[in-house]
Amino acid sequence: MNSFSHQRPDRPVLIAGLIAIVAVYFLILVGGTVRATGAGMGCPDWPLC
């Protein structure tokens, strides 16, 4: 029998998970906005623009 199967994750793990979820959601929103507005090619050759 596994004694670890009913333990809750530690608070820092929960906070890190929530931060990751919010960051991914924000990245998807920003990517969609860039795609919808056509702003992705504002600097096509990036380090040299």
Please describe what this structure looks like.
The chain is mostly helical. Helices cover 55% and strands 0% of the residues. The protein is elongated. The N and C termini lie far apart (61 Å).
Quick overview of this protein structure:
With 49 residues, the protein is an all-alpha fold.
Alpha-beta content class: mainly alpha
Number of strands: 0
Number of helices: 1
Oligomerization category of the chains in this entry: single chain
Distance linking N and C termini: 61 Å
Can you give the mean pLDDT? Answer: 85
Strand content: under 5%
Low-pLDDT residue intervals, each spanning 5 or more residues: none
What characteristics describe this protein?
mainly alpha, 49 residues, 55% helix
What are the SSEs and their pairings?
Blueprint: H1 11-37
